[in-house]
Amino acid sequence: MDAGKIEELKTLVERCKQNPSLLHTPSLAFFKDFLQSMGAQIPETEKSTSKNLVQRNDDEDIVESDVELDISDVVEPDNGPPQKMGDPSVEVTEKDQEVAQLLKAGAMDAISHGLFDDAIDYLTKAIILNPKSAILYENRADVFVKVKKPNAAIRDADAALQIYRYSAKGYKARGMARAMLGLWGEAFPDLSMALMLGFDEEISSVFKKVESNAKKIDEHHRKYECLRKEKELRKNDLKRQKLQESEAASFLEDGQVIGIRSFNELKGKLNAAEKTSQLAVLYFTATWCGPCRYIGPVISGFAENYRKVVFIKVDIDEAPLAAAEYRPTLLPSFFFVRNGREIDNYFGVDMDLLEAKLAQHAV
């Protein structure tokens, strides 16, 4: 293989190492396909546009700040009627090619004298005669860049690249035109490709600014994307928590004393109380306990008055495992539980003392 071609290939590989986004350039699709066929993982690239400069997020909590960019050479877009383009389906004769070459020479002379409108007229006539020449489109795109008509330059650069996908001048003109429109994310790969195909001092100068702006926009977007994702996660967590609380609350009976018949049932009620951050009062009793029957209506009244407290009645004969877990030494017994942990207890029938404890822990 020719040594010069090998050096060019080495240069291409080095540039792709430094800037993997180049592999997403359409003209390098064949190289990307080859790498992927060998098992290579091609990193994704993110497109940034001029909207990044001033776009604000409608999110009520996260408002993006503007990115400080060098926009000294950004111009208003040229939104007039598009320039005349050649018909690629026409047959081009040798005479057409000769006349087109003469017109191109006239255009070059006009450019040297700063007569850019004349140059555009010459090149337009040449393109009509020979619409299959990428060079003619490249030259007219270059003139449109000089007269600050970036959209026209992009149309001509696209035409040139359709004819010849390795057109360095086509990538250069399109990259510079996109930079003039503030399309930093799109200008970056174009100018990178132009530099790779052929170094140019003018490209290098513009590329430095484009690379800096594109990097700032990328970092800016990554930062706010992380913030938005974090906010979305918090929102989802809050929704999930509210749903769990709602389900747990429906499992409890507000304003009533809840009777349970097993240890598992007790665990379910305590878990529901924990999910809703409610205080649970376990009321241990038995059918044969006279004082328990006496205070029953009072406990029901407490349940009505302290609706944020879950009152759970445990018959020690019906739920012996629950009794074994808390070990009430006498009846009635009361255990105050918050977040799955016992925080206080009371044994006896002094309802004033019991209500004092309720008032203390129910806050």
Automatic annotation (TrEMBL):
InterPro entries linked: Hip_N, Thioredoxin-like_sf, Thioredoxin_CS, Thioredoxin_domain, TPR-like_helical_dom_sf
Residue ranges that the Swiss-Prot or TrEMBL entry lists as coiled coil: 221-248
Domain Thioredoxin: 237-363
CDD domains (alphabetical): Hip_N (cd14438), TRX_family (cd02947)
PROSITE patterns reported for this sequence: THIOREDOXIN_1, THIOREDOXIN_2
SUPFAM superfamilies in UniProt: Thioredoxin-like, TPR-like
Gene Ontology biological-process annotations: response to stress
Signal as UniProt keyword: no
One annotated Gene Ontology cellular component of this protein: histone deacetylase complex
Transmembrane intervals: none
Keyword flag Repeat: yes
Protein name: Thioredoxin domain-containing protein
Organism lineage string: Eukaryota, Viridiplantae, Streptophyta, Embryophyta, Tracheophyta
